[in-house]
Amino acid sequence: MLSLEEAHSQLLAMAPRLPSQHYPLSRCIGHYLAEPVVAKRTQPAADLSAMDGYALHSATQPGPWRVIGESAAGRPFNNAVGPGEAVRIFTGAHVPDGCDTVLIQEDATRDGDILSLHGSETLRPSAHIRRAGGDFNKGSTLLESGIKLTPGAVAVAAMAGYGILSVGGRPKVSILASGDELRAPGEACDDAHIPSSNSPMLAAMLSALPCDIEDCGIVEDQMDSLETAIRNCLHTDIIVTTGGASVGDHDLVEPVLRRLGAQIDFWKVAIRPGKPLIVGRIGKTIIVGLPGNPSSAYVTATLFLLPLVRHLAGCADPLPRYINGTLAQATAAGGKRVEFYRAFEENGLISIFSRQDSGMLTPLSKANALLVNPVDAPARNAGEPAQFLRID
Ligand SMILES: Nc1nc2c(c(=O)[nH]1)N[C@H]1C(S)=C(S)[C@@H](COP(=O)(O)OP(=O)(O)OC[C@H]3O[C@@H](n4cnc5c(N)ncnc54)[C@H](O)[C@@H]3O)O[C@H]1N2
Ligand code: MOO
């Protein structure tokens, strides 16, 4: 059986990133940057006041000063300020030549044009001044390609002079649930049927990524039906199936993929839950066959589907990131497969849910972490270090 590490390296080698595209900043959120953002301007471009008050030279204190003009944001005072003079200034406005400090208006008394300092405070040079280039300088690289564009990253790109960014492509992902027992969520179910919870779960997981999702519904456990359903999704970049990935008589994903002439890249990975995962391709479409058990589908989507989408969309670092934490309770020794326990993490302390059956959804619904129990790990006590994946 393939190790998790081998499966991950095969996954990322399967297909190159999708071609990049140009988007206005308003549509860039959540996409991966395809080219670095290099500042086209310096910010601030000049020394600016950080407060409302008066610009003057600290050597001329304690005053009084004569107010000779005003500097507002976008409307600088363009003359020099001499000894004994001050300029009314507002937050974001240029600090005029001849001034090296800002007296905030709460510490000032003004009588007509005459300004005096009240209180015994000393005005320090540079106080309340944001220096030119204090945030960034023209030509400096502010964002590397492959990073996810957060609101802060979009804002720095705008301030750096960009209105349009080059971002990675948006993979098209179709979701296909297979199983005679499945009904669409919300439909009535008798004892022989269950709602397809995997379909909305996968759509919800993918919704956090830059991709376009097509829910292709539910297909019965029949070779011809599954074959037709997969054929109908071949226009997408990824087809994710759930169920029918294992070895039972009604588990048809692998035989149907073979009938369709698919290349099977790997089937069965040394992980628990999720061992029956199948990954293959038909032409340019990658098929990710997730096991049907809800927690197995969740874990394999976390470990394979989301990283694949991130990779195609241009993410520099698409694989799940393990975080260091501390066990709140003892764990059993690891076995021959890496185990991912549904867990709850708070302040780095990880507790494992007592019910870990991969068919159960209640522990998953409360989990915010997957505790990683590596292959052949020794049994561990509460207080020992452990790694986890954040899943909220
Ligand atoms: N003899 C063996 N049996 C099984 C093995 C094995 O190695 N040898 N592997 C087990 C493991 S591990 C898993 S996981 C499951 C995976 O099975 P399948 O991918 O073939 O999934 P199904 O049999 O179709 O369904 C399993 C389970 O999940 C429910 N299900 C399916 N689809 C959905 C959905 N869309 N939403 C909610 N629940 C779903 C289904 O009703 C079953 O209860 O195989 C083991 N067996
Ligand atoms: O790996 Mo299955 O996914 O144990 O339930």
TrEMBL record:
PROSITE patterns: MOCF_BIOSYNTHESIS_2. CDD domains: MoeA. GO terms for molecular function: metal ion binding; molybdopterin molybdotransferase activity. The keyword Nucleus does not apply. It catalyses: adenylyl-molybdopterin + molybdate = Mo-molybdopterin + AMP + H(+). It is an enzyme of class 2 (transferase). Residues 174-311 form the MoaB/Mog domain. InterPro entries: MoaB/Mog-like_dom_sf, MoaB/Mog_dom, MoCF_biosynth_CS, MoeA-like, MoeA_C_domain_IV, MoeA_C_domain_IV_sf, MoeA_linker/N, MoeA_linker/N_sf. Its cofactor is Mg(2+). Keywords: Magnesium, Metal-binding, Molybdenum, Molybdenum cofactor biosynthesis, Transferase. Transmembrane segments: none annotated. Pfam families: MoCF_biosynth, MoeA_C, MoeA_N. One of its GO terms (biological process) is Mo-molybdopterin cofactor biosynthetic process. One of its GO terms (cellular component) is cytosol. Pathway: Cofactor biosynthesis; molybdopterin biosynthesis. Its EC number is 2.10.1.1. Catalyzes the insertion of molybdate into adenylated molybdopterin with the concomitant release of AMP. Belongs to the MoeA family. This is Molybdopterin molybdenumtransferase.
